[in-house]
Structures are given as structure tokens and as C-alpha cells.
């Protein structure tokens, strides 16, 4: 499907960003500091991934065990040939905070605002979240079918 779709991952969630007078960012995440670090690890790693498929696999790997972001980040980065030292330096430094702030601006600019996490948009349409979260492949295939695009991955979905 990768030739037909573009995937944009926005690791931010229901966080709140505070900009200090010196321009530094602090974040308050819904599930605490570990979630904020996990979001930074996600942000820094997807920036370094070579393609959408790797980004999705990387995020899935990290989400499956996100209680210790540095440990799972290292494991997942190594699995997908991304240099962990670069990701760790980014996540614990200014670049990670800048990326998370940028993703926060994208998240907060959505209209209407997001109501739960994860939220998935297809062609900027965020309706029908229940079905999307239940069977994303089916919904993607239905959208492609409307464009008369019928990849092999969609044969059993429509």
C-alpha cells in the first residue's frame, strides 16, 4: 500500500506545552513524564526512519512496550537499523523538545480539536474513528476503491 498512501505520525497526544521566558519548552503529558519522553523518542526516531513503512513499524514496536522509552526505543531502533545514539541524543536534548513542540502545534491546530488518542485522519477526515481504529486497512481500502485503485492488499477488504 505504500505506493498509494502517505503516513504522517504525530507523537504528541493530549500534552500541554509551556514555553519558558528563555524559549525552552516544558511538557505535561496526560500519563506523566514517561509518556513525554516516549513521545520525544518517537519524534526523533520517525524523523530518522527512511520511509513510511519503517516509521509505522517503528512506532508500533515502541507502542507495544512503552513503559521504559529508552529501553524500547533502543530495541526498536536497532531492529529497524536506526542509530539509537542519535535518537537518544535528540530525545534528551533540545531537538527532541523542538520536535515535540512542533507536533504539539500541529495537534492543537486541528479543528475540531481531537477528543481522544490515537486519532487517525484519512485525507484530513477524522470522522468514523470507531471503524478506523477497528479496521484501518478496510477503511483505507474503501478510500482507494473510490479512486478506482485496487491494490492486492485490499482484495479481501471491500
From TrEMBL:
Organism of origin: Triatoma infestans
Q: What is the lineage of its organism?
A: Eukaryota, Metazoa, Ecdysozoa, Arthropoda, Hexapoda
Pfam families according to UniProt: GILT (PF03227)
Extract the InterPro entries matched here.
Interferon-induced_GILT
Highest taxon in the source lineage: Eukaryota
- Keywords, A to Z? Glycoprotein
State the family it belongs to. Answer: Belongs to the GILT family.
The protein, known as = Gamma-interferon-inducible lysosomal thiol reductase
Instruction: Enumerate the GO terms in the molecular function aspect.
Output: oxidoreductase activity, acting on a sulfur group of donors, disulfide as acceptor
Amino acid at each position: 500500500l505504500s505506493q498509494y498512501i502517505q503516513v504522517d505520525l504525530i507523537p504528541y497526544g493530549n500534552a500541554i506545552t509551556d514555553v519558558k521566558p528563555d524559549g525552552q519548552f516544558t511538557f505535561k503529558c496526560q500519563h506523566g513524564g514517561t509518556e513525554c519522553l516516549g513521545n520525544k523518542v518517537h519524534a526523533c526516531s520517525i524523523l530518522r526512519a527512511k520511509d513510511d513503512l519503517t516509521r509505522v513499524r517503528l512506532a508500533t514496536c515502541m507502542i507495544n512496550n512503552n513503559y521504559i522509552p529508552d529501553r524500547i526505543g533502543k530495541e526498536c531502533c536497532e531492529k529497524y537499523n536506526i542509530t539509537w545514539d542519535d535518537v537518544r541524543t535528540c530525545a534528551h536534548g533540545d531537538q527532541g523538545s523542538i520536535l515535540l513542540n512542533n507536533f504539539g502545534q500541529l495537534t492543537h491546530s486541528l479543528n475540531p480539536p481531537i477528543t481522544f488518542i490515537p486519532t487517525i485522519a484519512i485525507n484530513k477526515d477524522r470522522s468514523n474513528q470507531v471503524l478506523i481504529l477497528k479496521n484501518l486497512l478496510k477503511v483505507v481500502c474503501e478510500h482507494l476503491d473510490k479512486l478506482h485503485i485496487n491494490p492486492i492488499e485490499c482484495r479481501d477488504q471491500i
